[in-house]
Design a protein that fits this description.
With 177 residues, the chain is an all-alpha fold. It is built from eight helices and no strands. It has a domain of 120 residues. The longest helix is centred in the middle third of the chain and has 19 residues. It is globular, with a radius of gyration of 18 Å. It starts with a helix and ends in a 7-residue tail after the last helix.
């Protein structure tokens, strides 16, 4: 699923509708070309970038997409390396909450991440909980909330909503938009 599909899903979640699938066709094509020309060389040592890469690629993992699996694996490896090098243990003055919380969001939604990231995510949440307003008080709390409740950022969230809607309809209820 490329950018158009991502935007379509996001719009469905918030109740808006794209009038035609052609509206973003040029952007979707540009995105496909960019991804396919660059994913084989993807690397980063930035925790926000790696978290975002994990989040973006998780949308395509179920479709056996080569780029999504490759980007997910490289991001997971890079984050493990940052963790083992002590990046996430630096003093608070050398760290930014929103960057690390972007990491935790991506780590929670991407199934390529190993189970030891569950503990690491909890550690990072605990570290930032009492410091969340110390710096960047506009974006950091938003990132913390997103990471604490990552289900809305997960591709499987729409399936859960659809099941709730179907259940409500089968019981004679009306799903309100």
């Amino acid at each position: 699923m490329f950018r158009l599909e991502l935007l379509t899903r996001k719009c469905r979640l918030v109740g808006c509708r794209l009038k035609t699938r052609d509206m973003l066709a040029a952007e979707e094509n540009d995105f496909k070309v960019m991804v396919h020309s660059k994913y084989k060389h993807y690397h980063s040592s930035d925790p926000l970038d790696l978290g975002e890469a994990l989040w973006l690629s998780h949308w395509e993992l179920s479709s056996e997409s080569n780029w999504a699996l490759e980007v997910s694996k490289r991001s997971a490896t890079a984050l493990d390396q940052l963790w083992s090098e002590g990046y996430f243990k630096e003093p608070p003055g050398f760290r930014l909450a929103f960057r690390e919380l972007g990491t935790t969001l991506g780590a929670q939604v991407n199934e390529v991440m190993s189970s030891h990231w569950e503990r690491r995510v909890e550690e990072l949440h605990q570290f930032w909980a009492s410091r969340i307003l110390d710096r960047d008080s506009d974006i950091s709390p938003v990132m913390m909330a997103s990471s604490l409740v990552p289900c809305a950022w997960n591709r499987r969230f729409e399936d859960k909503i659809n099941k709730i809607q179907d259940s409500s309809r089968s019981k004679g209820g009306q799903w309100k938009k």
